[in-house]
Amino acid sequence: MQIKTRSKALTFAHARARILNPSSRIRALGRSVRPRPYAPNRVIPTSLPLESASTGLTGSKRLPKLPRGLTANPRRPVNRESLCSSGLALVIGLGWAIAGAAQEANLKWRSADMTKEIGSYTPQRLKLSTNKPVSLKKVPDNLTAPLYGELKIGPKESPAHCFVLVDEPEGKPSRLFVDANGNGDLTDDPAPQWKDKKISGSGGKESVVYMGEAVVKIPFQSGTVDAQLGVYRFDKSDPGRAALLDSLFYYRDYALKGDLTLAGKSYGAMLVDELATGDFRGQEADQSSGVHLLVDSNGDGKFDSRREGYDIKQPFNIAGTTWELADLTADGKFKIVKSSRSVEEIKPAPELTKGAKAVAFTAKTLAGKPVKFPDDYKGRVVMLDFWATWCGPCLAELPNVIDNYTKYHEQGFDILGISLDRENAETKLANFTKEKKMPWPQIYDGKWWEAAVAKRYAVESIPFMLLVDGDSGEILSDPNTRGGRLGPAIQEALAKKKSAK
User: Fold this and answer.
1) Confidence class of residue 460 from pLDDT cuts 50, 70 and 90?
2) Helices (H), 5-96
């Protein structure tokens, strides 16, 4: 007998925010927020290195020097003690023949630069203290205002222990020291990267965040490997982040990457230690183990964590067959076997590039009027605007949206808003759109990131906009055209429609 369970992509407990050029600020800096997903639903948008959800801050912050499109995965940063690494390539080959049932996998250890490929990260929170740990043997000279933290990383039976020290002299640059080799001596380790970046902090005042990378060592039974961690700390003088005075944040920049073969077909794959524990067996938890298998099931060379990411403790369906991982080890070796359970296959995201067809749908507006998209917009160019009243970057974009609507509406331009506001926000949304003079209709179902239309469009960050031809349903602009590019894109779309008559 097969047990039917609802398939779900991996989902993180918070939102992830797209990391962009630090310029605009609203609530917390940023241009878009996303829920990035290994377990849909929960999101507290934020984008530079994320702060703890307990601070109550939302919005998005910026992480400099990371490519456009990279996202922070503000899962509630975990108050754990872990950090360390070094360098050594560990090839983890998988491919067992077990009564013909196990599938082949070949994943290799990648010690650094994997955050860019994964496209997101989940910040972990390390608590700092002015008390020097008793087992810390040696510290650098000339310390002025040291804060200490002790970290563990590696297999839970025998993790590596290493110390972290942040020295923050008043009016002078911050310094970071990491006991990479775990010997209790902070004077014999490679200096981690640690640079300052000015951002807009609370009340619009300039704030400084320090960020960098540190290499630590993970002591697997199969051999010790280097693992790079991204590290950052918010400005201690920012009153809006007073709750983070004792916090250092870090995230994994390592992973296992390669390919696996399922039913004779090869797929690109990655195994990701999202919580940076250094143990790929993950946590024993009902909702998420914190370790995820990413499978490029549509072969586009990218990993869509919402549709191609699977918790290692859960079965997953690819090409109609349900699989699961077995005999997973701390260093990421595993078997892939057919599951006795059955879950639905997660369909790939729709193609939303310029020239493709928009996804048709029917819905009801906030005012109760039925909408059939795109049929109800014959003769018009319509912009689907996915947004929310809680989304700082959406509010930052709003004046631009209103200006373009006012300028081009009489020429044949319309907007259909799709709100990702939470439940019981009908009155708030109605009042907000009236106050901001947003006359176009809004679709709202109160399901947040699970909003029906947003799911059909595989929306992973907001604001998200698409210009669509109301007659043909053709997408007339590059995905998410906004800011200074929105006006010219509307002009081009209107001109194309006019010339087609």
Assistant:
1) confident
2) none
Distances (CA, A) of 50 to 33, 211, 227: 12, 12, 21
CA angle 126, 276, 167 (to 5 degrees): 30
> What CA–CA distances, in Å, run from 384 to 117, 307, 415, 472?
29, 22, 6, 15
pLDDT, averaged across the chain = 81
**What is the rounded CA–CA span in Å between residue 326 and residue 21?**
42
Candidates 338, 415, 436; CA nearest to 98 is: 338
Mean pLDDT to the nearest integer, 251-277: 96
- Residues 75-99 as b/e (b if ≥16 CB within 10 A, e otherwise) read bbbbebbbbbbbeeebebebebeee
Please give the average per-residue pLDDT across 151-158, as a whole number. 96
Half-sphere exposure of 173 (CA within 13 A, CB side): 8
Q: Which domains does the chain have, with CATH numbers?
A: 361-500 (3.40.30.10)
Its pTM surpasses 0.70: no
The three state secondary structure string of 288-346 is CCCEEEEECCCCCCCCCCCCCEEECCCCEEECCEEEEEECCCCCCCCEEEECCEEECCC
